[in-house]
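Q: I have 530 residues here and want to know how they pack in 3D. Can you give me a structure?
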Amino acid sequence: MSFSTSSKSTLDINSSNFDPEYYVQDLLRKKGLEELVAVEQDMVNNVRRLDSEMQSLVYENYSKFLNATSTVKDMQNRLTDAHSEMNSLSSRMNKITDLSDSLTEKFAKNCERVKKLNEARDSVKRLEFLIKAPQILQTCVEQNDFSKAVNTFVSIQPKLEKLKNLPSMAGIASDSEKIMEGVKKQHSRAEFAHLLERVMTIFEQIVDKRFSNESNSVDCSLFVKSLDRICRKISVLARLSPDFSFTRMNSSIVHRAAKHQIILCRQFVGETIQKAINEAFTKLNNSTPIAFSSSHSDKGQFYSSGANNNNNARKTLLRELLDKIEHCVLHSIKSALASLLMFTATDIIFSSIPHFTAIFGFDVHEQIVIGSIQDLTTNINLRIDSLTENEEEGKGTELLIFCALLRNLRLKHLEYLLELAQQQYRLNDFHFSNQYKLTNIETPTSQLQQLIEKLLRKYIHVESLSLSKIANKCIFTFEWAECSETPQRVRTLIKHLVRSVAEKDVDVAALLENDSFTASKERTPESSHG
């Protein structure tokens, strides 16, 4: 095997072990005349090709060498020029340095003198302005530019005080003071108070606009602190200008801002309650309907079997939804009362404004408690009135939930909320006139009772239509006169009607039963048939 490898390397032209004589002998031994001629021709062509390539490489390398030589020579020339320019620049820099040192030495001798001359020039300009001060002030007065006149006099007054003892400046100071005395006489104290009133009116409008743009009703602390800071700053101005009453402005700003915050809280209460109602009804609509199972005795009587668990689950769901809405109503109103209570804190300056605490407490009582309940009843009324005939179907349970909610508000929570508002804002300590008369509990109680009755009538109407449709289907589906239907099919429709009645019974028992009524009675075949 080693011999074979060695022979191959001696026959490979590209190998370093190539043996030409052995290669020729191998060709003569293996190939014929024509093949030898072809090999010779191929070798001649390869030699010529390689020779041509060799010449091309030589020419290319020589050309590159010439280009490199030219480039190097050009760089040498440029470096020589740059070196000469650097030498010239260095000599010039030395000359500049020498000239700078010379100039510095010459200017240093006159630096103090130039500084004194500049100071003298500034003093002359100031004196020139002081000398022309009476003329400048008179021009401003003639042009009714009193603001510029006052600013000019205020800027030169300290200098006139220092120089008025000089004979040359005494007349200038006297003339300037006479001109300003004339300005003072032209504008009396009443005119100044009128100007201040106009400015403060604009300020009041800006403050009102800023507070009216506030939309956060969850936390009143920042709102109250900002309002308190504004009132304190206005109170400080009252000491500086006794001719203008700032108490009225403070009172107006506070009353408007407080009313705006009360309205925001009322809107927040309404939105929170509406959101809870929508979430509860969405959960109700997505809940699984009651599934009733049935069995038959030998006598053909119908019993509800296995339905107690479903009934209890339905009751639990309805009571949970009612409790959620009821809790939301109470919590949102109580939170609004607690948040607005910050307006009556003793460390707030505007709490000392006469009658503010009483009027504010009255507004909270009427807007947050009475107003929120009125908003709830209004929304429920709109919800009922907007129902079309097609939308009424399936809304009976929602009507019952509204009935139970309003009943609990009327019987349990309304009196508590009114007493809570009156206690927190100490309304019993104030004597209100007819203009500020607290709403009696009978008014919202009567409104709630009327709406409850309306809801019950609507519920009866909706469910009666629903049961009537089922009964009509039972009657008109079969040919009762011919008695062609089997008892099984008839029993199925009757069971459907009984189940529908049982569903209504479960809803009514869950939502409208008395507190002492612990368990609803199960419907039996006897009770179904009356």
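Q: Anything worth noting?
A: The beta strands are 293-296, 302-305. The chain is about 80% helix and 0% strand.
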